[in-house]
Amino acid sequence: PLVRESVQRLEAIEEQRAKLPAVMMEQELVEMALSNDVLLVCGETGCGKSTQVPQFLFEAGFCQGGKQLIGVTQPRRVAAISVSQRVGEELNRPGAVGYQVRYDKSHCTKDTRIKFMTDGILLREAQADFLCRKYSVIVIDEAHERGVNCDILIGLLSRAVQRRRRDFEAAVASGRFARAEADADAAKDLPPPPLKLVVMSATLRLCDFTENRQLFAVPPPVMRIEARTFPVTAHFARQTEDDYILSARRAVLQIHKQLPPGTILVFVTGRQEVHRLCKLLNQSWAAKSRGEQQSAEEQDEEAADEAAGGAIDQLEASDDEDDFDDDLADANGASTAGGAIEGEAAADASATCAGSPGALAPGRGPKRRRVARAPATGEPEAQSAAPSAAKKKRRAKSRAKPQGDEAGGAGGVASAAEQNSLQSTADGSGPAGQEPSSRAEEEEECIASFRIDDEEDVVVLDPDAEERASAAEDAKDAEAKRQKRIRMGKLDRSRTANGVFGGIGFGEGPLRAMPLYAQLPARAQLAPFGPPPADARVVVVSTNVAETSVTLPNVRYVVDAGHEKRRKYRASSGVSTFVVDRISKASADQRAGRAGRLGPGHAYRLYSAAAYENHFAQFAPIPMLHTPMDPVLLLIAFLGVPRLDIFPWPTPPTRESVVAAVQRLRALGAIADSPGAGGPAHADAANA
């Protein structure tokens, strides 16, 4: 019988845990684990499964009084380290939780009861002990990524679970446990208790496990945990551009300058792009700050507004109606970005004709860059005002467009229905004619009226009459927007003081770009997980490591480039290479969900809605089906598996690829001709 562990958590930790949906499922999960050897846990991002499930099993007594461990695998070491530290903090017993990653096993001691590790570490341990005797429960987290190591582990553990169950029941039937109570020497030879396998994922293909009789003879039960997250609005770009790094930079700078506080999470493909974008952001904001210093007069005006601003904490809808409408008409659509996608230009064009969400606004063609004509002699004023006049011309044209055209663009608010809802809120015609009554609604108005400008600064040929004619109107509009930003800043500072989102907004301070990827040093990996600074906005530039493996604090905005680095294998040449490819729709949803942890979030997708619908697969391809089988089968043979052709894969590769790989390995002398003779003969694996 299991003996429950006593855990004394801090009161603040208990309050935080109470908000996680997984905590409500503790009793159900423990009962299912007691009555089943294999359990599938399918929980959405943010439900708390990664941190809470190991604690449930620990408190239920699955460590057998300290005789065995609870093992938890993660696909990346940054996840193994950060989650282990969080679990130790929640249990208030840091020594009971340890982790082991490549080249670092110093954080596991004799007091460790819950061990976090990468899947490669557990695979190496299985080479020496196929039955994993020191573990009572093994949790495979983030199984939806379906890495090669993860698939091999699930196949091996499916046989280890069966073998340990058979050995345990045979020992009970033969009376060995009864004799061990009287003979201490006999107790040393007792088999370990049955192994429990828990497979957890956010977007799990359940059919690969529940319908695969070769993997699990009895379909395992499935426990679903719903995430209690806030809604996230997805904004698409008008077109998919080639250089998504520059588009991401432009989007981040505009979000920082025009929107309320909240960390910005940017997804790119690899280490080189992470560092490139971090460098661009730091340089761009430094240059922008130097070029946009306010005059003394503007600073005095702003200080006066600040002093007299105590009476406008609660804005009237009628006072803000003109500003809101102007902002909505002034927006130019979402930032264009993404990678070079074959055939997407045609898809975007067809979407324009069809009026799809990803279409360009009617009457708007692709942007053109023109060369400036040098001003004539005696025109110093025109020479200095040309760039700003060009901006004014572009913005004046934007205001002249019908508002319906903007609703057709995919770069702004996600749907026309949402625009109508926001408009009714702004003009006081919402439900029961109510006015905005909370700071959150005011901030959402500001965010809803924001759209990423998809045009660079344009240099025009003749900055003369038309620009000067619109200068007065444009200056008035700029002043109105500045006043609104001041009012929203007051509201936002009050809300930030209440602990909803940390940091600064509306460009009131600097950007602080932080990299995050798997090979980053451990100390640098933990930097984005700290509390946000009070005098800056944090931008985390990450690979897909932040997609599901870890949860970053304070994230309110997500900028998604829509690409990831993926290994592809060419069977014709026998060569595997890394390529930058589109993510799946499931991955896009996971990335967007990162913005909905603390409050309503926004995901700015740097690709068009047409590209998303026509060129993004529903799920990412399974790596096992695009990997050369030679090294995989060599590893399995080293483990002592007798029949390489009938290994229980979650998603089996083609029989032809397996047979061809076995023939090549035998021709090289890497494995023996007789079954089970490849590598050291593990009797446990051969008999499983």
From TrEMBL:
<keyword id="KW-0067">ATP-binding</keyword>
<dbReference type="InterPro" id="IPR014001">
    <property type="entry name" value="Helicase_ATP-bd"/>
</dbReference>
<dbReference type="GO" id="GO:0016787">
    <property type="term" value="F:hydrolase activity"/>
</dbReference>
<keyword id="KW-0347">Helicase</keyword>
<dbReference type="GO" id="GO:0000462">
    <property type="term" value="P:maturation of SSU-rRNA from tricistronic rRNA transcript (SSU-rRNA, 5.8S rRNA, LSU-rRNA)"/>
</dbReference>
<dbReference type="InterPro" id="IPR027417">
    <property type="entry name" value="P-loop_NTPase"/>
</dbReference>
<dbReference type="GO" id="GO:0005524">
    <property type="term" value="F:ATP binding"/>
</dbReference>
<feature type="compositionally biased region" description="Polar residues">
    <location>
        <begin position="418"/>
        <end position="427"/>
    </location>
</feature>
<feature type="region of interest" description="Disordered">
    <location>
        <begin position="348"/>
        <end position="452"/>
    </location>
</feature>
<feature type="region of interest" description="Disordered">
    <location>
        <begin position="289"/>
        <end position="308"/>
    </location>
</feature>
<dbReference type="GO" id="GO:0005730">
    <property type="term" value="C:nucleolus"/>
</dbReference>
<dbReference type="InterPro" id="IPR001650">
    <property type="entry name" value="Helicase_C-like"/>
</dbReference>
<keyword id="KW-0378">Hydrolase</keyword>
<dbReference type="InterPro" id="IPR002464">
    <property type="entry name" value="DNA/RNA_helicase_DEAH_CS"/>
</dbReference>
<feature type="compositionally biased region" description="Acidic residues">
    <location>
        <begin position="295"/>
        <end position="305"/>
    </location>
</feature>
<keyword id="KW-0547">Nucleotide-binding</keyword>
<feature type="domain" description="Helicase ATP-binding">
    <location>
        <begin position="30"/>
        <end position="222"/>
    </location>
</feature>
<dbReference type="Pfam" id="PF00270">
    <property type="entry name" value="DEAD"/>
</dbReference>
<protein>
    <recommendedName>
        <fullName>RNA helicase</fullName>
        <ecNumber>3.6.4.13</ecNumber>
    </recommendedName>
</protein>
<feature type="compositionally biased region" description="Basic residues">
    <location>
        <begin position="390"/>
        <end position="400"/>
    </location>
</feature>
<comment type="similarity">
    <text>Belongs to the DEAD box helicase family. DEAH subfamily.</text>
</comment>
<dbReference type="GO" id="GO:0003723">
    <property type="term" value="F:RNA binding"/>
</dbReference>
<dbReference type="InterPro" id="IPR011545">
    <property type="entry name" value="DEAD/DEAH_box_helicase_dom"/>
</dbReference>
<feature type="domain" description="Helicase C-terminal">
    <location>
        <begin position="434"/>
        <end position="640"/>
    </location>
</feature>
<dbReference type="Pfam" id="PF00271">
    <property type="entry name" value="Helicase_C"/>
</dbReference>
<dbReference type="GO" id="GO:0003724">
    <property type="term" value="F:RNA helicase activity"/>
</dbReference>
